[in-house]
Specification:
The chain starts with 6 loop residues before the first helix and ends in a 5-residue tail after the last helix. 17% of the residues are buried. Helix content is 44%, strand content 0%. It is an all-alpha fold.
């Protein structure tokens, strides 16, 4: 008396609307671009791993944007002239990102990103910076003044920083002893 639908219809309805299991995520493929120990190879490997992890870690609602930005970055890296040819050949954005993408339509997003990619500029080297000597500050304000020498205002050139002699250091230590 309380059943309005036959049991077979209810079971059919449940089967029809049961959520389908998502395919198991296998994780990103191993990027085998590091064939030498050059700085470019290390940079490319780190960039590819970083891009793949960012796309894979994107939350619902952010996946499309992360996939687009990541694929654009990979296409940019692939088109960069400073990247050696053997490394460029190993960068396949579709193969690398489809392992962390969810929908089959994501292939289109990855392909569309190629149109917006521009080659990356060469990364800065980590060469030691030039040592710049300290320069003493000017003792007067230059705000509102004209360039040096005009209107009778003479601006002295900057001088090298003053370094006390060992005798002066000792005298300062006696005048200002360290707290105990």
């Amino acid at each position: 008396m309380y059943n309005l639908l036959p049991v077979a219809v209810v079971q059919e309805f449940i089967e029809k609307h049961k959520p389908k299991p998502r395919p198991a995520r296998t994780g990103p493929p191993a990027f085998s671009g590091r064939r030498d120990n050059s700085g470019a190879a290390r940079y490319v490997e780190a960039a590819v791993r970083n891009i793949i992890s960012e796309v894979g870690a994107a939350q619902e609602g952010q996946r499309h944007d992360a996939l687009f930005k990541g694929s654009r970055a990979l296409w940019s890296l692939k088109s960069s002239e400073w990247v050696p040819d053997n490394l460029r050949a190993d960068i396949d954005p579709e193969e690398l990102l489809m392992a962390v993408a969810w929908a089959p339509s994501d292939v289109r997003v990855i392909q569309d990103a190629e149109r917006y990619a521009s080659p990356r500029s060469e990364p800065m080297s980590r060469a030691p910076k030039e040592v710049v000597p300290l320069v003493e500050c000017r003792l007067h304000s230059t705000s509102g003044t004209t360039p040096a020498g005009e209107d009778g205002v003479e601006v002295p050139p900057p001088r090298a920083a003053y370094r006390p002699t060992p005798d002066e250091v000792e005298e300062l230590r006696t005048l200002f002893p360290a707290p105990v």
